[in-house]
Amino acid sequence: MPVDVLSVTLRALSFLTLFQAAGIALFVALREPELPNTGRSLRRIGILAALIAAAFLLAQYLLEAGRMRGELGGVLDPTLQGIVMHSSASLALSSRLLGLLLIVGGLLRAGTVGGMARVIGVVLLLASFTFVGHTSKDALHWLLSLVLLAHLSVVAFWYGGLLPLYLVSSQEPPQTAGWVVQQFSARAVWLVPVLLLAGLILATLLLPNLAALRRPYGELLIAKVVGFCALMPLAALNRWRFGPGLQRGDPVAGRRFRQLLVAEFVLLATILCVTDVMTTFYSPEG
Asked: Which of 157, 130, 120, 203 is nearest to 30 (CA)?
């Protein structure tokens, strides 16, 4: 129905922008002293992403009452809005908005206080995903929540770090850009297996049986795995070939590096959108 399509679109857009804001906040916290040319731009982009994410979140939250009725007119129903207000969706929204507010405040302010605000904001953003969805209703909620937090932390680091890497590789001196890329890649080598392991644990605990892989939830989960596998050679090329070339000042390597970053960004954004559809319309139990 149109209201469902609009809702899932707003939710997907909020995912993309809030993970971007979270990733930039983490990137700035780790690398800003080394970025004289791009630090200020990254702060501005992070603030803009956070504000846009907040707008999408509010719009999607207001639309929940419409989804309950099955038509846009439900948005104006005070009874339905009251039900939404007292649901777990309200708690998740509050946590996300507060997290985004702290990220904006942290990006506006330099120093230790700003850094702490950004980190706390990212934690609140990611923790909000444990308040709703399938993991929140499972008997192993505490375990699933920890695994989901680990999974989402890597997603925020990876997806949210691609745009900063693009800017750094094009605007910072080759040695600086190469060093930043090397440090990012060194962390990613350890974090990407965590992403895979956490995803496997979530799938194992949530799916009732192997037959569930032939239902829509399982089919979309397989699509996510395929997307993840497609990311690996792209990341490996940048890690072992074009990243070192960038540090040597090779313009061709720098151009290829940025092209692969764009491909990674598109793939990760697609995976986030698939996750949105999967968790909005389907359940592991079918």
From this structure: 157
Classify burial at 235, counting beta carbons within 10 Å of its beta carbon; exposed 0-12, middle 13-18, buried 19 or more: middle
Quickly tell me which residue has 């330099």 as its tokens.
Answer: 110
Q: What is the pLDDT of residue 139?
A: 65
pLDDT at 76: 72
Mention the CATH class of domain 142-286.
mainly alpha
Q: How far apart are CA 264 and CA 282, in angstroms?
A: 26
Domain boundaries, the chain: 1-132, 142-286
Residue 67: name the closest of 281, 286, 285, 236 by CA. 281
User: Is residue 278 within 8 Å of 12, Cβ to Cβ?
Assistant: no
Query: Could you tell me the pTM of the whole model?
Result: 0.91
Query: Which residues touch 160 (CB under 8 Å, ≥6 apart)?
Result: 19, 20, 21, 22, 23, 24, 25, 26, 27
Residue 86: per-residue pLDDT: 77
1: pLDDT strictly greater than 80 = no
CB 65 within 8 A of CB 75: yes
Best CA proximity match to 33, nearest among 133, 114, 103: 114
pLDDT in tens, 186-221: 888 888 888 889 988 888 888 888 888 888 888 999
Kindly tell me if the per-residue pLDDT of 135 is higher than 70: no
Largest CA distance in the chain: 63
CB 233 within 8 A of CB 145: no
